[in-house]
Amino acid sequence: MNKFLQAVIGLAVAIAPLTSSPALAQAEEIVIPAIAAMSGAVAVTGQDAQKGIAVALEHINADGGVAGRPLKIQLYDTQGNPGVVRQVMERLTRLERAPVILGCEISAGTSAAAQFAEQARVPYLNSSAVSAELLERGYKWYFSDQITADTEAATVVEFFEHLMTQGDVVPALLYEDSPRGAGTIERIEALLEARGIEIAASAPYSRSDRNLLPPVKRVQTSGANVVIWAGYTEDVVTGLQAMQQLDFKPYIVGIGGGPGDVRIPQLVDRGFIEDVNLSTVDYFNPDMDRAQRFVKAYEERHGIVPSSYASMCYRGVYTLKAALEKTLESGQELTTENLRAAILEIDIPGDQLISPFSRIKFDEHGRNVGSQNLIAQWKNGGTKKVTVWPPEVAVEEPNPLN
Amino acid sequence: MSVELLFQAAVSGFLMGGIYALIALALALVFGVMGVLNFAHGDLLMVGMYGVVLVSASTGLSPFLAGLLIVPAMMAIGWAVFGLLIRPIVGSAPLVQAQLTIGLSFVIQSAAFLWFGADLFNVRTELGASTIHLGAIVVSVPLLIGFVIALVASGLLAWFLSATVWGYRVRATAEDPVMAQLCGVKVQRVQMWVFVGATGSLAVAAGCLMGFYHVTPVVGLQFSVLSLMIVVLGGLGDLRGAMVAALVLGVAEALAGAIFNSASAPAGLYILFGAVLLLRPHGLLGRGATV
Q: What is the reported pLDDT for B157?
């Protein structure tokens, strides 16, 4: 499967009507590689990323390309497997001598990719993984325009404190024990403990668990009325069904792709979604004004509302474009050194982004100092995900505590 | 940890175990009759699960009925797979069989990715959230229905094998194919029908699962691993052993999650698996081939 899919994706993927004008068509194309999990257990992330990239390229090339040249992204499948990530990175840095690599990869794969990029001295621009630990390694060639587990945890606790103003709140933690889920939950746990808030139950589960009744029952019997839940779509669907069967209706504050997946209303009873005030900490929501051009184009092209996975790589391509443009406009070649310097110089204002970020500006650790989260909540009978937090970007008020 | 939590885990695990049994019996039967350990077993189940989704979506039928409806289609797939891939490797070295069936597994997964994408599909019915309360224990109705159907299907299989002429032929082929052939049993035909029937039974299991579960292109792998564990725990080729092992594994899986409160709980299953291999190398009931 691996080689077959890689070949298909390498040849056919990505993407994009490359020309919007004769002049652009004649200019030399800029081809930049990107990596994503197009197959394997987290393939949904890569496939959505591919769709987001396609729309970004459509927009960029329609708007004149990068310094007058058409942009193309060549997408490589990693299966979300760190071993495959290393193979792909070796090929891209040593054989194909890529000047920069765009990462639409989950945290485990990004860890391997960042390590490899550091050794090969090739800028790696992460737009997906939220691992904060990667930014603490002192890497010089790793940049992340994405939010981190720290910003997610801080947003959850702020929202939790908002709920505490409405009555007694008993929190419990329910999470899929991947580095992604566990990392954020650990930070939340520390923040809650620092505020003297007692956690009624902490229930981790494995992604391979087919039966989530036991961990959900554990949370229910703890007496919790707010569940902070980190999970992917598969386990969130199974877990919500378990909650419905147990007639357990806490206020759910979700983290990760699962609770906010745009497909949730098709997969779970919509009434129940609203009963549990299913909310999700996210870095994108389609109702934001600044995202409308992307949302409309995505719906036209793919027939569905874009997910957060799709948005992050759309944003990543624009960050990449800014760095490429800065390099070319200063008359420099697209080399690894020049692109690294350009990435450190870019400063994209928030109103030009589709994310709720204040800006994209990297510090010396490669962290985007302008990244921030929002909280979206399923409303209107579980049919519409509405931005409810923070108040500066909220479209509606969050539902009150049950 | 409360007793209530343990009972809840045991009950839901037992019901899951019943469905695991139907899935694993098909694998055990194929191994027993033709000596092929099919690593693509879970992927064939995944094909059935997608079939159930398609039929339910287009007809509005419950997943349980949809599963029954696609039995002929799954049998046809089984017939094609047997003729093209399995028949040539019957009697080959285990490594050859493993390589071929693992390759088949990858091909099926890739095809599912191409046709359905990576998205998750499930079948939503009015029964989806229905439950029965036994005191403090909650029993999911779809899971219970799946369990009952799986149990009936497994019972029918046992009856077929023990009370029909075709069943005698299957058992004779499993016991000694050469002697069975000398006695007039058309061994190759029996092997073909066993594979076809086993693949068809996966449609029923797929219907049972889709009452409460979901399908993605990679879901087959976990069921392949699970089925292989059950077949080995039960004793290679021992159907009754596989049935018991499936129930034990279902309960152990759920209890591990409830007791250890850790995502490493599934490791407990592998410890159990290793212990059985060491202490009962012929399976839980001691009647299977040597592992």
A: 92
Report pLDDT for A195: 93
Give the distance, in angstroms, between the CA of residue B188 and the centroid of all CA atoms in the same chain: 23
Nearest CA in chain B to A5: B110
**Mean pLDDT value of segment B3-13:** 89
A179 and A88 co-located in one domain? no
Domain that holds residue A351: 2-147+289-360
Chain B interface mutation, best of A45, A48, A104, A208, highest count of B Cβ atoms under 10 Å? A208
Nearest to B129 among A46, A214, A269 (CB): A269
Into how many domains does chain A fold?
2
pTM: 0.76
Same domain membership, residue A301 and residue A384: no
- The model's confidence at residue B287, banded by pLDDT at 50, 70 and 90, is low
Distance between CA A298 and CA A276 in Å, rounded? Answer: 29
- % of residues, chain A, pLDDT over 70: 93
CB atoms within 10 A of CB B98: 16
Give B-chain residues touching A267 at CB under 8 angstroms.
Answer: 120, 122, 124, 214
Give me the mean pLDDT over the B273-287 stretch: 80
CB contact under 8 A, A43 and B217: yes
- Say yes or no: A90 and A162 in one domain: no
Question: Which two tokens mark A295?
Answer: 């949302």
Burial class (CB in 10 A: 0-12, 13-18, 19+), A384: middle
A43 and A191 in a single domain? The answer is no
> Has domain B3-279 been given CATH number 1.10.3470?
yes
- Spatial CA neighbour of A173 closest among A151, A155, A153, A158: A153
Structure tokens at B207: 């219907």
Those residues whose C-beta lies under 8 Å from the C-beta of residue B156, and which sit 6 or more positions away, are none
Q: What are the helix and strand counts (H, E) for chain B?
A: 13, 4
Q: Which of A8, A48, A245, A248 to mutate to test the interface with B (most CBs of B within 10 A)?
A: A245
Tens of pLDDT, residues B116-154: 987 889 998 888 778 898 888 889 999 999 999 999 999
CATH value at residue A227 = 3.40.50.2300
Give pLDDT tens digits for A194-251: 999 999 999 988 877 778 888 899 899 999 999 999 988 888 999 999 999 889 999 9
Q: Residue B110: list chain A partners with CB under 8 A.
A: 1, 4-5, 39
Burial of A40 by CB count in 10 Å (0-12 exposed, 13-18 middle, 19+ buried)?
Answer: buried
ipTM value greater than 0.90: no
Confidence class of residue A20 from pLDDT cuts 50, 70 and 90? very low
How far does B163 lie from chain A, in Å, by closest CA?
Answer: 35
The domain segmentation of chain B, as residue ranges, is 3-279
What's the confidence (pLDDT) of residue A22?
55
